[in-house]
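Allow me, if you will, to draw on your knowledge of protein folds for a short while. I have a record of one protein: its chain in single-letter code and its fold written as discrete structure tokens. The full record is reproduced below for your convenience:
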Amino acid sequence: MNAHARLSLNHATIKHAPLDDAIRAARAAGIPSIGLWREPVAEVGLARARALVEASGLRVSSLCRGGFFTQVDDEERRRSLDDNRRAIEETSLLASAGAEGSAAVLVLVAGGLPPGSRDLPGARERVRDAIAELEPDADAAGVTLALEPLHPMYASDRAVISTLGQALDIAESFGPSVGVVVDTFHVWWDPDLMRQIARAGASRRIASYQVCDWSTPLPSNVLLARHYPGDGVIDFASITDAVEAAGYEGDIEVEIFNQDVWDDEWAAVARRTADAFQSCVAPALSGQR
């Protein structure tokens, strides 16, 4: 079985699979790329993770995740920056172990409001300040810091950056080592989305494109509201066409947080991921129309 050449299986889609099993599931489904997460890498150790990736023949599309920059306490902020510097190093080492075409992209989630705070503009400025401190480290390591806007329902606890425009306002303050993530789950609703994707293309800021679907009713834990492409309401054709027109040519990750998917057998999830991608996303890609 061979999946689409630009498909990447984000490890979160089979969250409970150890790294070697996640790699095995991707390979068995013919998926040529994998999006890694720091926690499974840490479980086996960075050296072992690099060896597994190198032996797999898979590309690495990204590493999740860094970020969480909104702390007010100086000591907490210092710890966050130190952890992000480690994440930059991990991204560089893991991407270098992947097959040709791997991307040294570190996905950043901004962080939510600090406890007791209502200062949303101030939290966003702390995100900008943190990236300013990390950008030289990323540039030196050849890593792209990819700031991911999250749906506004996560603004209080997870990400004060809610729109692609807000992410670009920060990214465009820096050199090319700072970019953005376009994730269909988080941005599909935005009436300004197409203009902002074009803007991201003009400044060459799209560092990652992630896809999954939105369906209602949402579960009680809204973190687990993601679905396979095609199982919800998102128009993947128009968004993918816009991302293509903006010049993005990298891997496209399917990243799903859904308890039913996590409870399924890993190989079956990888196969269904490939099928959903082929049906809903691939037709809009260059050479497929």
Summary: Residues 7-284 form a domain with the TIM Barrel fold (CATH 3.20.20.150). Residues 74-97 form the longest helix (24 residues). The chain has a mean pLDDT of 97.
